[in-house]
Amino acid sequence: MVQIGYKLMAETFAPTEIVRQARAAEQAGFDFVEVSDHFHPWLFSHGHSGFAWSMLGAAAQATDRIGLATGVTCPFGRYHPAIIAQAAATTALLSDGRFTLGIGAGENLNEHVVGAGWPSVSVRHEMLRESVEIIRLLWSGGYRSYRGRHLQLDDARVFDLPGTPPPVAIAASGDASAALAGEHGDALFATAPDAGVVEAYRRAGGTGPRYAEVPLAWAPDEQEAARTAHKRFRFGLTGWKVQAELPNPVNFEAATAHIREDDVRAAMPCGPDPQSHLHAVGEFVAAGFDRVALMNAGPEIDGFFAFFADELAGPIRAMTDGKQPSRANAY
């Protein structure tokens, strides 16, 4: 059965609102929520970027059953993997085992702030692999040291560990990162309905859940939905080669100046029609993803939660992994 999550957009809402949304998502029937872990928002106009780990701790106490995840954290750069190992272990304890650690190779937008430079993508993948090794080493208990090509750990120990370590979901957008996820992760994390990424993950030995984010914009009026989606999510149309490299929100403002509302409408479902939203989710399920996190770029959060409960939850749960139902007959 497909599990359904909700993406908490920490770049567009204040920290207290993010925690409220996590609680509301649980009440609406979502299976999990994931929160972005950014130092900067994507766009200067977003206006927010709270500390993900504080919000996760608060959400763990404000909810009872819903899963929690980072979507995703870069465990090197502005962090060291030892800090992420400790943060994830603590969050797993606070949530009674409901936490999944989503990690990826990061974006210059967030990692350049510590002044350590921005490595090439191949180096970042090496650093991501070493980070996973350090995190798992610390989760095994005791004092640990590590000497990698890029990262080191010196006589460190995480004292508060959960009985079962949280799963590690690794973000991928191509064969190399998908192979890394298959070899070193417990799950895959992606943002495009790319069956090739799922296949590469499986070829590398990956057998765990496959997470994906599905952008959409709900509102009672299609034009209103598209207008808000353009305001909140136009950065998503730049693609990962841009998103990983630009250093500041003002750069994203400039890079997205040419993107129109019609471009956003063409890239994601906008408005009140459940069929269009279900079809978008179905493309990800057909590509092999069984954990779909809905990213609502529309103007109303609570209205969307009601729409989800009434129109989307049942049909999405009935979807079959790896099969795309026809638009006309499936729902």
Automatic annotation (TrEMBL):
<keyword id="KW-0560">Oxidoreductase</keyword>
<dbReference type="InterPro" id="IPR050564">
    <property type="entry name" value="F420-G6PD/mer"/>
</dbReference>
<dbReference type="InterPro" id="IPR036661">
    <property type="entry name" value="Luciferase-like_sf"/>
</dbReference>
<dbReference type="InterPro" id="IPR011251">
    <property type="entry name" value="Luciferase-like_dom"/>
</dbReference>
<dbReference type="GO" id="GO:0016705">
    <property type="term" value="F:oxidoreductase activity, acting on paired donors, with incorporation or reduction of molecular oxygen"/>
</dbReference>
<protein>
    <submittedName>
        <fullName>TIGR03557 family F420-dependent LLM class oxidoreductase</fullName>
        <ecNumber>1.-.-.-</ecNumber>
    </submittedName>
</protein>
<feature type="domain" description="Luciferase-like">
    <location>
        <begin position="7"/>
        <end position="291"/>
    </location>
</feature>
<dbReference type="InterPro" id="IPR019945">
    <property type="entry name" value="F420_G6P_DH-rel"/>
</dbReference>
<dbReference type="Pfam" id="PF00296">
    <property type="entry name" value="Bac_luciferase"/>
</dbReference>
